Amino acid sequence: MAVSTPALLSLDRALPWQDEQWQQLCRLLNSDRLPHAILLSGAQDTGKRHFATRFIQRLFCTAPVDDVACGECKQCRLYLSGAHPDFKRVEPEAAGKAISINAIRELSEFAVITAHQQSWKVALVAPVEAMTLNAANAFLKTLEEPREKTLLLLVHDQLAPVLPTIRSRCRVLSQGLPPPALVRDWLAGQLGDASAAVDDLLARAGGRPLRALEFAEANTLDDIARFEQVLQQVQAGEAAPVSAAAAFEGQPLNQLMEWLLAYYSRQLIASAQRGGGAEPRQFVFYDLLLSTRKKQQSKTNLNPQLVLEELFLSLSQSA
Ligand SMILES: [Zn+2]
Hints:
Bound molecules: zinc ion
CATH architecture of the largest domain: 3-Layer(aba) Sandwich
CATH superfamily of the largest domain: P-loop containing nucleotide triphosphate hydrolases
Structural class: alpha/beta
Order of helices and strands: HEHHEHEHEHEHHHHHHHH
Oligomer: single chain
Number of helices: 14
């Protein structure tokens, strides 16, 4: 299965905000002290899977140069083709779905067999919080029986906490949002564009670099601008909330929620920067946004249109 990252994101290039963690892991590897389980924890869309994919290739590579996989050797080619027999990827079948106990049972079997290529054996579990409780309990057994030259690499998108019993058995590498200046330079370099569009993209993506890159690739900025225009009209009392919400019927709620959150966060920041601070009713609305997103992430069955109407109504009263 292909790695699901933006098409523009090149696997041979490091993400600059990950340099320190990369060096840390390479030092451990080179001194034969690599832990058997690593938990990469960080904000969504900051490149944790990209980091994991590169590091796993580094492990398999037989001719690394300056701690970077060569991309040419047999092991590198096998891994990049997606057919390396000593690599196992455990993911939900679709975004937002759970990782089942069956997937973890397969992983346990993989962990006990002998490596085909007499080198490392690696399993990537992403995101770890997608495991069902049963799956997580089954996974603990594998985690508790470390094997020579077998690495369990867990990615945590911080959408839900990781069980303490799992977390405590891993070396945790955690990272928040990367520094804005670094991200801006990187994105400008990726897009070959240092214009204001880079700032617009990052603002809409809440500072998450890979999300901003996806927006650029999919030309999402125009759609967001149209949505934000309606939000402004609702706030200004120029559009009726319910009919305004009806115009977005059928569009994925998680996407609209993301845009709405980024839009409203910017307003709160702007209020704070003007020195007046935000009004209590603005926080009431912001709380509603956060609690709605939480409900949505916990897979509660929501009626998207009703949710959007409620949010628009509340937005019209928040201004
Ligand atoms: Zn190589």
